[in-house]
Design goal:
Elements (H helix, E strand, L loop, with lengths): L1 H16 L9 H26 L1 H8 L3 H29 L1 H21 L5 H19 L2
Helix pairs in contact: 2-4, 2-5, 2-6, 4-5, 4-6, 5-6
Keywords: Cell membrane, Membrane, Transmembrane, Transmembrane helix, Transport
GO molecular function, one term: heme transmembrane transporter activity
GO cellular component, one term: plasma membrane
């Protein structure tokens, strides 16, 4: 009788442990998803914009294609050293703060890129530096 009561208790526990979850739709989540997608798309555009029309940038900055390719490749290389600090921030500060900081860097980098409309590659490199940092923030958010 002891064993049968334990079996009944276990079967009862299983029924209580797995209730059917109820999914609730919040309209605010769609807004957040749209904003996050917009930030990610903006960052991706800034990452790859030089590679898309590299021949124009090669003439404008008077550099070779390898320098243009390195502007895009540096995003992937900064992933390695910046992954741990961003994961630490994500764990300690939360996704909201990480996305806000990443979006701020994206905005600042875009304004600096506007300033690189003159044939000065150093300004463009500096704006890319800001956007590299953002890429890691948005990647883990």
């Amino acid at each position: 009788t002891q064993a049968s009561s334990n079996v009944e208790a276990l079967q009862g526990d299983r029924a209580e442990l797995a209730p059917k979850p109820e999914t609730k739709l919040y309209h605010r989540r769609w807004v957040m998803l749209f904003l996050f997608s917009a930030v990610s798309a903006s960052n991706a555009f800034m990452w790859l914009q030089y590679g898309i029309i590299s021949n124009i940038f090669m003439r404008f900055y008077n550099i070779d294609s390898l320098a243009i390719d390195w502007l895009a490749m540096i995003y992937l290389l900064t992933y390695i050293p910046l992954i741990l600090p961003v994961l630490w921030l994500l764990e300690n500060r939360g996704i909201r703060d990480v996305v806000l900081v990443g979006s701020a860097f994206n905005c600042i980098g875009a304004w600096i890129k506007i300033g690189s409309a003159s044939p000065n590659l150093e300004t463009s490199k500096y704006s890319h530096l800001r956007n590299w940092f953002l890429w890691i923030f948005n990647l883990f958010a």
